[in-house]
Model the fold of this input.
Amino acid sequence: MSGERVLIATTVNGVPHQRAVEPRMLLADFLRHELGLTGTHVGCEHGVCGACTILLDELPVRACLLFAPQANGRAIETVEGLARGPGQLHPLQEAFRDAHGLQCGYCTPGILMTMKAFLAENPSPTEAEVREALSGNLCRCTGYQHIVDAVMLAAKRGAPG
Amino acid sequence: MSTRQFGEPVKRNEDARLLAGRAQFIDDVSLPGLLHAAFVRSPHAHARLGSIDVAPALAHEGVVAVYTAADLGDYWRPGPVVVPPPPVEGAVFNERTQGPLVKDKARHVGEPVAMVVAASRYIAEDAAADVAVEWAPLPVAAELAAAAAPGAPRVHDDLPDNVAARVRQTKGDYAAAAKRAHRVIKRRFAYDHGCAQPMETRGVVAHWDAGSERLTVWDTTQAPIAIRNGLAAMLGLSERQVRVIAPCIGGGFGPKIMLFYPDEVLMPWAAMQLGRPVKWIEDRAEHFVATTHERGQIHEAEIAIDADGKILGVKDVFLHDTGAYDPYGLTVPINSQCTLLGPYVVPNYDSAFTAVFTNTPIVTPYRGAGRQHGVFVIERLLDLAARELGIDRAEIRRRNFIPPEAFPYDNELVYQDFTRLSYDSGDYAPMLARALEMIGYERFVREEQPRLRAAGEHVGIGVVCYVEGTGIGPYEGAKVQVQTNGRASVLTGIGTQGQGHYTSFAQIVADQVGVGVGDVEVITGDTAEFQWGAGTFASRGAVVAGNAVSQAAVAVRGKILRTAAEHFECAEADLVLADGRVAIAGVPGRSIALGELAVLANPMRGAVAAGTEPGLEATSYFGPESGATSAGVHAMIVAIDPETMIPEIRKYVVVHDCGVMINPLIVAGQVHGGVAQGIGNSFYEQLVFDRDGQLLNATLADYLLPTALDVPRMTLAHTVTPSPLNPLGIKGVGEAGAIPVGPLFAQALEDALGLTARGVELLEIPLSPSRLWELARADS
Done:
């Protein structure tokens, strides 16, 4: 199995990358260990918890359920790409801070990426809609209430999805 | 900034780096030459180990080493007992702890038998699959009651049976109380807790620097100092040669405080053997069997009551499943035994438990740590008593509360911290009244429920009470310093897993030192920074470390004022400390920045007075004489579809008392998260083993953690009875939300489904749609 390599080219947070990787390398491992973008977290490696959610061509996907070569020629956005610059936070991130929408912060990057795509689709959601959209991401710390509050706050402030 | 920051809902210092994806978690640690480990684990719950052939694994390109127990030599030894048995007269405790790799036989599925070290995790896992292990399966003692029965397969061959411990604690004379009772109500209760499932699994990275003879270990532990001390002893190193770093940790909830998991002793050893750093990151499948659980107890309990519903006494005999080994001593069953007493006057109590070895993963504390089991028993007994006597269930609780003038209230038992179980302070009746008002109890029972039932809805209400022993010793420490850039730093050994310590400790310091919360940098979980402490567990961080931080901050404030008074040649009483500066009151322009003062406090030339300490710095330690007792009341209104048995929580209220709050936003988050885990425990989560000890639902697709659709919006209120046991008056809150949810579900669902009228009682947790369906039809 080891030895074989395929060349992939992908754009991550606007930066083009080219790498030769094993065909079986998970996209999550590629982002974390090949590109050093460790903000994407791996929680279950079987597609349930949502911690590794990234945007692939602007749609949320689980980076643990994709192989790196499947991202060939596509654009990826990770949590590191949310803020405009160092020391800044994206309005969605700001809302999470303001509403205490995180505790340990491990599930947070996946939730931010999921909610970014959700708010792009539904900029003025109801609480029930937020909960539905959030239900594919597991958080073990917060009981979700402050996360829901954070997303509602971001929507109210007109955070760009 | 001169306004008080202690007690305010301050936004968290740690959030920016967590939100940006910059925070370092264990798997983010990367080192040159890093090797990766994978384990070969027992597929059997109970099996004698035969030969192991590692040659096929070693043949993989990129494999560096494969280790079995034989390779460990003298390093192989059973782990320590983290918590020794309590000093209860007549207590029996059979210490049997886990070794790093299976040597003679495997005692639970997932016990590691070999470790592969390779250039990548992918290669290590490929090779691990090719390690050939011969097993001779043995009869399995998987289920608690069966394992406790005579003739059960023995988990440990050198013991006559599977008894891990026996402890009996009594108060008063239960037998005499039962004789004069109006009624004695007896039932069998089964309470099964699940596993913590933090979103980040465990992991260890070890790096041995042969040049400096220093070992650095990154570990997802809740107790870095204890790990440091233990590793140094095992490896023949001094404590200064070992540095343990608990980086950002993705949730703990108890199981991350074991000493030692096999991987925790193996990575450092392998790194020293190989001269290269080694990393192991647990995957979710491993987590289900390699990280500890909490699981179940079976109680045969009875309550003796008078005609007014006053408790005369409680008798409880229970079995506790401790899993294959008992490294955490008896913390979990002792908590069950003690917490059963709740906020009530129980004049006579007779409680005896037997902890039982089973061929299942090890049981150690998980959020609540056995308290749930005891609270379930007493709350259900009170529900039964209320029904038999025709008393309202809220009223029977009110009648039995310990009155506010009775504190400190001595419950006469030995608690998990080995001190006497004594409640420091509390006032329970106002909490119950508040909860009933918030949930709209009277109106619901009298008007809404009949109306909704008439409309065909199955709706019920529940209300339960509990106490939580928190903030136990022995001690924690903190060093507070004003740095020359004007910012303050706090060093403490306690470690943090998302509880907001970077903020709550900063709030404590900010007020004393006169800076903003954002100007206080909290450093924790690194043994190179602070050498002493016990760890984050038992809802003790804010109470014990918080008070140490406060004492140190008060001392630094004193140094600031003394140094400034000398500088200005004025009286300390004339100084005002605020906004990062010390000013002379009423004299505009006469002030100095804290950073400049810190420079002055570290003279580079000349003589200083004898006894002078440099810097604006102080270290302090705090150890409470015993734990602080928090309390709460939860109430909910639930609707359930009798066909699908899917519940819908329509209203959930929590009234909680954790003494003085440092940050109500963080407290709310702790309660919310606790309730969510309690809901999981009550209705969604159960570790399902078959009779062979195989865990049948070891994925997150099958072991159901509650989602945003399962956890309702909660309404919180707080009452405050300060703890007299610490200067800040605080009590712990970490586990509170999780503790009473089981009996709340049972009570409210019985009510919603009208089960009691049909003679069906819900005496077990977890419930689930299918289990409720079975139970609800038991009468037909």
Observations:
- The first helix of chain B runs from residue 15 to 19.
- The CA atoms of residues 414 and 624 of chain B lie 16 Å apart.
- Residues 419-471+628-780 of chain B form a domain with the Aldehyde Oxidoreductase; domain 4 fold (CATH 3.30.365.10).
- Chain B touches chain A through 62 residues (CB under 8 Å).
